[in-house]
């Protein structure tokens, strides 16, 4: 197990999440009349997207066992989210659905890790960057 790949994927996903949500909140605050508290579904989308990207990054950096490294990124995300809710919303922690959130975080991390390792396999077989080749035409 490559701990460096796991933490790199986790911190990259955290950075993607914070930048995405920060830009969204700033854009909504300055450019729209919509209340920032109504952005729950979009923030959830950024959460899942960043978690997938973190698993993808962990899979690429580990170069093997992408599902395992992605699962650990998901577990770290679950722990971070649980700690956040425990610190800032102590009454709502049990009603939040910690088990459902854990399963979803781990599954999305696993999917990202599998895609990251498979991307490396495809890249190695083709000898070129697949994404560049797909978007070239």
Care to describe what's here?
This protein is mainly α and 137 residues long. The protein is 81% helix and 0% strand. The model has no long low-confidence stretch (mean pLDDT 86). The chain crosses the membrane at residues 9-30, 42-60, 67-88, 100-122. This is TIGR04086 family membrane protein. Keywords: Membrane, Transmembrane, Transmembrane helix. InterPro entries: DUF3792_TM.
Total tally of structural domains: 1
Briefly note the structural class of the backbone: mainly alpha
**How would you sum up the global shape?**
globular
Q: What is the rounded distance between the termini? A: 38 Å
- Describe the sheet with the most strands: none
Summarize the structure.
The chain has one domain (3-131).
Descriptive key words:
137 residues, mainly alpha, 5 helices, 81% helix, globular
Helix-strand layout with pairing:
Blueprint: H1 3-31, H2 40-62, H3 66-88, H4 98-126, H5 130-136
Helix pairs in contact: 1-2, 1-3, 2-3, 2-4, 3-4
